[in-house]
Amino acid sequence: MKAKFSEYLNGIAPFMKKLISDLSGHYDYVSVLCTDTTGFSVSISQKSKAVGNSTMFTERGNVVRVYKDGLYSEYAFDHFAEDTLCETIRETLDRQLRLLKATGTEVYHTGKLSDEPCTVFAEMETEILPENADLSALVDELSSISDEAVKTGENVVECMVRGSSTHVSKMFLTANRDMRQSYVYSEGMVIPIVMKDGKNELSTAGVSGRKGPEIFRELRNRLKDTVKTANEVLNADAIEPGEYEIITSPEVTGLIAHEAFGHGVEMDMFVKNRALGAEYINKRVGSDLVTMHEGALCAEEVSSYAFDDEGNPASDTVEIDHGILRTGICDALSALRLGTKPTGNGKRQAFDHKVYTRMTNTVFETGTDSVEDMIASVKHGYLLAGMKSGMEDPKHWGIQCIIERGYEIKEGKLTGKVCAPIVMTGYVPDLLNSVSMAGTDSRVFGNGACGKGHKEWVKVSDGGPYLKAKARLG
């Protein structure tokens, strides 16, 4: 079935179009983004069950963007009186402009956004809408998964199971654009906790996608392997620090994509001279096996949409082409300032937050090698699996990835030794230039969210195939 577009947004559309018309007599450019997002979240453990009628990104509200005298201003609101809203916006935003002039504040003058005609109406497919889900049955299902883990899993003392499903409706309007989209994304996790001899560890496995609550049916199938992984981590050794040959699982490949060439090529950082990537456009940053895509169209996951929060169509941007950095990703205002085109990556955490250049789906292309051949080619190294966290320094291209576990390889064979946790560090071009093999299978992961620094959280996904490279581990 199709994810039905919000009746509320359809209902306010005529007034919003009139508002744009009225404001256009005073400003050179006017747009309105209207959002109506619903959903639910479920959290299960052996001690508690919690059901909420919202998710991290549930919201209903609107934001007006205007342009005048080389400056952009915005006004966000979640309730309004139709007869006074236009005047309220004008008074508020003009007061800001007067204050800038009165204080002699130096500003960054930007050109006017184009407003070429565009009409979009996208209701994307889903099996079940969050608002139609049987939450009682879902709680029973997720509770039985938690119970199964504790009853049958070795050393399992607790198992948390979580799920959330979000129905997004967004409408972007200007004098010449009417863009409306509706889609559903969902994510779930199973998190067994194991204990032995006073020591405890956990592991996580997730499901995610641009799907409805039907996706939670897949969680039970992840339980056995996740319990096994938790016990491997529980009994793991510490790794001896050094440089090793590595094979990255698709999840770790995605972590590298996100941290290495994710934030580092968000081009609002180019405007601020805070990213080394700006100096490497059309230069080599990886081996010939490294091709990386970024965009809402390059995968069907939690961050796959028809248009971004500035009314720019979604894209599939090839950032790295056989080792050569071709471009970054860009929101609309940064594109104006850099003299380039937006890539459909202008995203807001919520309607009342600023637009930033943000990642959507960030994915390495596949290659022609099998995992077995990769393992056979390693003299001494590790197959890295499981993602914990990562961070980067876009200004100097340093990277740090914390990985759940590593399986030792010697003379082309897995030894059975597991080390955990593992910290991978290095200089991004060194890491990517060392990629010597790429697998044929690819996976994309969309659990969790990404912040711009320590805030501005949005949904993203990343992934790719198994890769063979070299890195420093500790």
* Beta strand count: 27
Task: Kindly report how far apart the N and C termini lie.
Answer: 49 Å
How many helical elements? Answer: 9
Question: What's the assembly state of these chains?
Answer: single chain
Shape: globular
Q: In terms of per-residue confidence, which ranges show pLDDT below 50 for 5 or more consecutive residues?
A: none
Give a quick account of the main beta sheet: strands, pairing sense, barrel closure: 9 strands, mixed
Structural class: alpha+beta
Strand proportion: 35-45%
Q: Which range best describes the helical content: under 10%, 10-25%, 25-40%, 40-55%, 55-70% or over 70%? A: 10-25%
**Rg for CA atoms:** 24 Å
Mean pLDDT: 96
What is the domain total for the residues? 2
Short description:
The chain has 474 residues and is an alpha+beta fold. It is built from 9 helices and 27 strands. The strands form 5 sheets. Strands 1, 2, 3, 4, 5, 6, 7, 8 and 9 form a 9-stranded mixed sheet that branches. The protein has a 7-stranded mixed sheet with strand order 11-14-13-12-17-26-23. Strands 10-18-19-21-27 form a 5-stranded mixed β-barrel.
Explain how this protein is built.
This protein is an alpha+beta fold and 474 residues long. It folds into 2 domains: 7-104 and 119-234, PmbA/TldD fold (2-Layer Sandwich), CATH 3.30.2290; 242-473, no CATH class. The protein has helices spanning 7-23, 85-103, 135-152, 219-234, 250-261, 268-271, 332-338, 371-376, 428-433, and strands at 29-44, 49-52, 59-68, 71-77, 118-123, 156-173, 177-196, 199-202, 205-209, 242-248, 283-284, 292-294, 317-321, 324-325, 346-347, 356-357, 361-364, 380-393, 398-410, 413-419, 422-427, 437-438, 443-445, 450-452, 455-458, 461-464, 467-473. The strands form 5 sheets. Strands 1, 2, 3, 4, 5, 6, 7, 8 and 9 form a 9-stranded mixed beta sheet that branches. Strands 11-14-13-12-17-26-23 form a 7-stranded mixed beta sheet. The protein is globular and about 75 Å long.
